[in-house]
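lol forgot to send this yesterday, sorry. struct tokens for the thing we talked abt
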């Protein structure tokens, strides 16, 4: 499972994309919830009630978390819902740290894409995005934001200029 690709990913992350040869060993996943239902035949796990998901530098909190897996427990998709559902990626480099929140967060493992719907906010480094719908493609490092399915909402963006090498503090 490569939830860490969301470390943007969530960028949702999320979390993020390494070449297969360079990808580290999968890290264990820790999940807490009030209830759990696992259907191995269908590859669906449903966690309800104050759900906390952690894997390496990534965490996700939601009211409900549904995890879809394929053969050999490979992650296919994660859907988190809440008021709001929230993810964080704590990267070593400040500009790679990210978090996002929305009423609904969908992470598609095969494409490393995170979609935040409903009162969505996403931040990577110092850059901030908010609106009704935000998509983050970790492979392409592409953020798209816009109206929801009902055609409503505007996007707000704060983008900070990149610091020059001269402005980056160094340790002596």
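and heres what i got for the seq, position by position
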């Amino acid at each position: 499972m490569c939830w860490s690709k969301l470390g943007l990913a969530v960028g949702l992350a999320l979390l993020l994309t390494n070449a297969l040869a360079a990808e580290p060993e999968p890290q264990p996943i820790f999940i807490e919830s009030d209830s759990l239902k696992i259907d191995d035949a269908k590859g669906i796990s449903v966690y309800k009630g104050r759900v906390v998901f952690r894997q390496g530098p990534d965490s996700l909190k939601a009211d409900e978390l549904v995890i879809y897996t394929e053969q050999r427990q490979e992650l296919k998709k994660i859907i988190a819902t809440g008021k709001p559902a929230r993810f964080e990626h704590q990267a070593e480099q400040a500009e790679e740290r990210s978090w996002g929140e929305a009423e609904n967060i969908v992470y598609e493992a095969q494409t490393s894409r995170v979609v935040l719907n409903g009162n969505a906010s996403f931040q990577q480094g110092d850059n901030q995005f908010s609106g009704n719908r935000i998509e983050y493609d970790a492979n392409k490092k592409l953020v798209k934001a816009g109206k929801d399915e009902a055609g409503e909402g505007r996007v707000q963006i704060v983008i900070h200029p990149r610091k020059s090498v001269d402005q980056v503090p160094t340790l002596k």
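The chain has one domain: 3-167. anyway ping me if u want another try
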